[in-house]
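Issue 218. Parser rejects a valid record. Input:
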Amino acid sequence: MITYKQYHIERFEHGRRGWVARITRADGQHIRTILPASEHPYLDTKPTASAEEAEKLAKEGIDFGGMV
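Output the parser choked on:
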């Protein structure tokens, strides 16, 4: 698990579909999204071919994905 800004990113293999990164807040609070307006305990990226790609998607989601 790595910490990026105020979020934790955990990469894991997701069956035969590839790798997924799970994003959680470091302070344990729910992640709020702007569109659609909702709250989640965590968010997963879409499956990718490698753990590095999944981590990159997670970082892009944190930077540009409308999470607060």
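Fixed in the parser; the record now loads. The chain is about 20% helix and 35% strand.
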